[in-house]
Amino acid sequence: MEWVYTDPSQNFIGHGFLAVDFFFCLSGFVIGYAYDDRIGKMGLRHFFISRIIRLHPLVIAGSILGLLAFLFDPFGGHPELYSTGKVILTFLCSIFLIPFPTIADRAFNLFSFNAPAWSLFWEYVANIAYALVLYRIARSYLFLLTILSGLAVCFVAYQSGNLLGGWSGPTFWDGCARVSYSFLAGLLIYRSNWIIQNKLGFMGMAALLLLAFLMPISQWNWLSEPLVVLFYFPLLIALGAGTTPSPRLKALSRFSGKISYPLYMTHYAALWMFGNYYTSHKPDGMQLTLIIVAGVMALTVAAYLVMVIYDIPVRRYLSANRAGRV
Description:
Blueprint: H1 19-35, H2 39-72, H3 84-95, H4 117-134, H5 139-160, H6 172-192, H7 201-214, H8 221-241, H9 247-266, H10 268-281, H11 285-325
Helix pairs in contact: 1-4, 1-6, 1-8, 2-3, 2-4, 2-9, 2-10, 2-11, 4-6, 5-6, 5-8, 6-8, 7-8, 9-11
């Protein structure tokens, strides 16, 4: 939709980028839930290996797909403008999650061949901070850090006019503020047991979350976006932890959870090809609608295939290999 509506005020889902902040908050809760009571026993080395096995295979897959799309996009792009050495260096930086915003044809993304990896970079930083500091500190200090990072989010929103940054070189530190508050807030919710029991279920929670993304773009983004991030998303995490999906929707819940990360890390290559196609061919009306609907479905199927053929087997192999060495 950002390709179709270059004017954000015309985009019906113009605040879709706030999904990253929700993800960071959810991640803080999940990490606390999964590791608070066992990271001391498992040790830092095993914690970091576990996180790398869980996250990094798809970082590599997304980088490879992004490189192929950059080199062989049938609808546009100018790979000939960049030296072989620069392309190789950019690819290596993408694989190892080293920010390198240097490709103009990719809008100077931190990771030119897989832009969504910018949030994974900050997720890694948050995980390192958790393992070294956050899991040890008292809840009162965690609360104080959350407040301070919340002020940083407000400063970023006021200075930039929104919370869209973090993905590019010039907005690099905006990402630090966004992950700091949301990850800490999610962890604080878990530690404080701020869970609100309810019967909203999967569809109710999905509807409430969607409202944040459908929020209109306005001159008040510098205020409305921090309010959503600081208060609404933590509320949704507390509500989500206190509800149970109906038996009919449990399968959908499980599938959504499993496919979300593979889809996130593999869709970017196709988005750039779609963007180049859209700007060069300018489809409209029913044709554009069919392309977008079919594209979303195809990306979901492709992500599923990457998950079952590559990601799950690789993670299973690495986990078994690690277990055999212990």
